Amino acid sequence: MNLLLRKKHYVQVMHHARPRMQLPGVWNEARQTLEEWLDESMHTTAGPAIHAMEPVIPVIQSVDQEIKWQAQLSELEQIGFMNRSLNIEVLERYQGRLLRVVNFLSEMVTESVDSGAG
Hints:
This protein has 118 residues and is an all-alpha fold. It has helices at residues 3-17, 25-42, 62-68, 70-79, 84-93, 98-117.
């Protein structure tokens, strides 16, 4: 059920449930103003879209990643893992845990050697 039908249904139910309370002039005007504003807001796109209110997560670029993982990249190169883009990808995957990164890269080297020898 769309919003407009729900509002109409709500108004009908409330109308039959109890008579509308009579308010003093200023309050009655305020209620009418609010109801008009709500009606207009249902049919306008002036407000921000829902997705526009979601936080934006910044995308880390490769230069930033090289700076972020500079110490780990240096250690990996000293060990003999020279493929910087692969090293960065694996560092991101394992959140910089160097032992896990070295194990993963070592297994890749072992698998490639084993498959090449067979």
